[in-house]
Amino acid sequence: NALRKCASAQKxxxxxxxxxxxxxxxxxxxxxxxxxxxxxACEPLRALVESAASKATSATFVRADxxxxxxxxKKVYATTDSDGMGLELSYDKLVIAVGAQPNTFGxxxxxxxxxxxxxxxxxxKLHAKLLSNLEKAAALSHQGNKYATEIDRLLKVVVVGGGxxxxxxxxxxxxxKNHDVVKRYGxxxxxxxxxxxxxxxxxxxxxFDESLANVAKEHLVSKGVEVRTGCxxxxxxxxxxxxQPSTPRTATAEQxxxxxxxxxxxxxxxxVWVAGIGAxxxxxxxxxxxxxxxxxxxxxxxxxxxxxxxDVYAIGDCAL
Length: 320
What we know:
There is one protein chain. The chain has 320 residues and is an alpha/beta fold. It has two domains: 2-99 and 279-318, FAD/NAD(P)-binding domain (3-Layer(bba) Sandwich); 110-273, FAD/NAD(P)-binding domain (3-Layer(bba) Sandwich), CATH 3.50.50. Helix content is 34%, strand content 25%. The protein contains eleven helices and 18 strands. A four-stranded parallel β-sheet has the order 12-11-10-16. The protein has a three-stranded antiparallel β-sheet with strand order 5-6-7. The chain has a three-stranded antiparallel β-sheet with strand order 13-14-15, with helices on one face. A hairpin with a 6-residue loop joins strand 6 (75-79) and strand 7 (86-90). It starts with a helix and ends in a 6-residue tail after the last strand. This is NADH:ubiquinone reductase (non-electrogenic).
């Protein structure tokens, strides 16, 4: 959208991105269960640039990962890939629209063992994991009750994060279970699928009106989703997930100890982490360089100009 608005006569626009497509992230939940193809959530950046080029003096796409910004000399330093081959790009005006990345809040094991839903690759991984678990469970079911425990583990999906993404994903998973799985694997498999939505806050969809959140919860429960609120994940190791009652930041040592004493571990087939977002390294580095104390994003004024800079703007999830 910023590209379309910026492209006009007498302007040369350069788009720098590590991925060759624009990703419409709200569609990732649907693509992860096959409701739509992943291609439907992506639009080639070169096609967008080609459209913008008809309006601007020139428009160029550079596939690279921006690593550092020098606001004093108006330069962006980027690398083409992991081998560190560097690019130096100059600008007159800079728009930072890098979005955000999943925030694991430092919980041990989440980064290593969890699945996410932020990039196209994440959706593909989740889709592959779901199908792999279904196929294995279906195969094991031919041995009667011999592998009952393993089948139940394979078919248990835990989604952490009761925001819009987590709620939508659980709804998609429930529809997938009640329609596609029933049709292709039968009720013997579909009836054993467990979808668990875990939210640390007292209710799901906390930023929204409580009545709306209640409607969403009732809908999920009616579809067979188990909703656990006031519950947090504290540790992940392989297929084991440990949860306990969540505590407020002001909790006393005694309250924390009581919550820890109620911790329980359970084996799951898939853990999907959609519990929040955090700033990307580029944003944190620039925020620190500018003397910001809030590392959640870049502070901007009413015109979206980054505070403490000239001709640098931030939009989307990377802006505060």
